[in-house]
Recover the amino acids of this structure.
């Protein structure tokens, strides 16, 4: 079974708007990661947040982690058409480097 | 480094045939993962290796599936016999073992079993 579950399943926004995706997970974790997948391609790592961190930034990306609620959010600010992709959260499920992915959010940014 | 290399990129085979998917991880990485992606089930972890040793194969769906890693630079995922429901994109990924490390994915093998 999948460890993480993202919502919404799909999101459509206008270029320039912010996009927020959420992830919930079930077991304790050491870290949580976000990945991006363009259509027909492999996944690409975006950002990793450790279980003792609450917020992390990377460029236009902002990730938060609430371990008490077992949830994380990914915010993409000032979105661009090139941000159109599927976004996945992944956790180690507390088992070192075993990576388990959620169902993903499909983001469409309209220009 | 060229990244994680998978072959073939596309495979079409008839039901009942044996299928072998191949993966070359990034040099120096000591963890390797096999995933299967479908619309219905999303991205499923099939098996992962640390230092060429299978650690967790609980995601392997059936005995028809087997994976090997004979050395640090090569792994195979075999399906024998293949069935139409095995049609999916299969990804290989590698990472440095330990927590707080990212995984690098190959481009995937799109398998179609007819």
């Amino acid at each position: 079974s999948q460890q993480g579950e993202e919502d919404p399943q799909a999101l459509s926004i206008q270029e320039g708007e912010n996009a927020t995706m959420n992830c919930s997970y079930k077991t304790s974790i050491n870290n949580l990661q976000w990945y991006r997948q363009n259509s027909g391609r492999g996944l690409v790592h975006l950002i990793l947040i450790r279980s003792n961190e609450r917020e992390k930034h990377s460029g236009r990306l902002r990730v938060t982690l609430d371990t008490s609620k077992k949830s994380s959010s990914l915010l993409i600010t000032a979105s661009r058409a090139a941000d159109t992709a599927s976004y996945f959260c992944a956790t180690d499920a507390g088992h070192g480097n075993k990576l388990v992915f959620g169902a993903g959010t499909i983001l469409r940014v309209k220009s | 480094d060229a990244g994680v290399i998978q072959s073939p990129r596309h495979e079409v085979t008839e039901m009942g045939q044996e299928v072998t998917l191949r993966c070359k991880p990034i040099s120096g990485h000591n963890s390797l993962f096999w995933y299967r992606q479908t619309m219905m089930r999303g991205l499923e972890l099939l098996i992962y290796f640390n230092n060429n040793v299978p650690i967790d194969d609980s995601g392997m769906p059936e005995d028809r599936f087997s994976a090997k890693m004979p050395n640090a630079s090569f792994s195979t995922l075999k399906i024998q016999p293949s069935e139409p429901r095995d049609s999916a994109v299969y990804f290989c990924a590698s990472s440095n073992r330990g927590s707080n490390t990212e995984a690098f994915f190959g481009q995937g093998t799109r398998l179609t079993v007819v």
In short: The interface with chain A takes residues 4, 31, 33, 35, 42-45, 48, 50, 55-56, 91, 93, 95, 97-108 of chain B (CB under 8 Å).
